[in-house]
Amino acid sequence: DSGVTQTPKHLITATGQRVTLRCSPRSGDLSVYWYQQSLDQGLQFLIQYYNGEERAKGNILERFSAQQFPDLHSELNLSSLELGDSALYFCASSGGANEQFFGPGTRLTVL
Amino acid sequence: AQKVTQAQTEISVVEKEDVTLDCVYETRDTTYYLFWYKQPPSGELVFLIRRNSFDEQNEISGRYSWNFQKSTSSFNFTITASQVVDSAVYFCALSGHTGTASKLTFGTGTRLQVTL
User: Fold this and answer.
1) Which region holds residue B97: left if phi is over 0, alpha if psi is between -120 and 50, else beta?
2) Do B103 and A101 touch (CB under 8 A)?
3) Of A48, A105, A107, the CB nearest to B103
């Protein structure tokens, strides 16, 4: 158990819908990262937050947004969903040592 | 830009065989970190090791060992006496030092199948 929690574990929704994925980092970790794992794109970095502020952005679509709250949990919002958004979404957290510990992931299926 | 190449897509071995997973990286950073993660069939990503660019000592942890060679930009992972439980996809990853550079760049992964 990495200490990072993600909910829900599975999510099935329809095209055009909006979903929210939630992540709680390990106790004491200030950084939260979001990654997407899909068959065609592999594991890709989406966005990083550090202590509530956006720190870095990767290949994140404009339809996607994220935030980190004062209690350090983070949410990834995906809107206007398309079939191609079906993927495993991981959250990771990090303290000061550059090691990122991953949550169990949320498997999103868009029908 | 950073890049990680895992040329071996899939490897099959028989239990008790040794197996080496290759990882080659590209970066312009002078300070960087290399990682290996394991993704078993259950799907989670399990952290195995972190190595920083200034530490070229090889590391051994039980049946696992890692060989970091800066001269060839490689960070290979060897499993000695493989077991069925080692069956998983293994990812090599690279990050910069701090701040915006600390995101992980992953390779495409190597699927290891260990059979009896």
Assistant:
1) alpha
2) no
3) A48
pLDDT band at B97 (very low <50, low <70, confident <90, very high): confident
Q: Measured between alpha carbons, how far is A104 from A58 in angstroms, rounded to an integer?
A: 21
Min distance B4 CA to chain A CA atoms (Å): 12
At B71, which helix (H) or strand (E)? none
Q: B52-63 pLDDT, tens per residue? A: 898 888 888 899
% pLDDT > 70, chain B: 97
Judge: B47–A100 Cβ closer than 8 Å, yes or no. yes
Q: How would you classify residue B109: left for phi > 0, otherwise alpha for psi between -120 and 50, otherwise beta?
A: left
User: How would DSSP label each residue in A1-40?
Assistant: --S-EEE-SEEEE-TT--EEEEEEPPTT--EEEEEEEETT
Q: Nearest CA to B79 among B92, B58, B93, B60?
A: B60
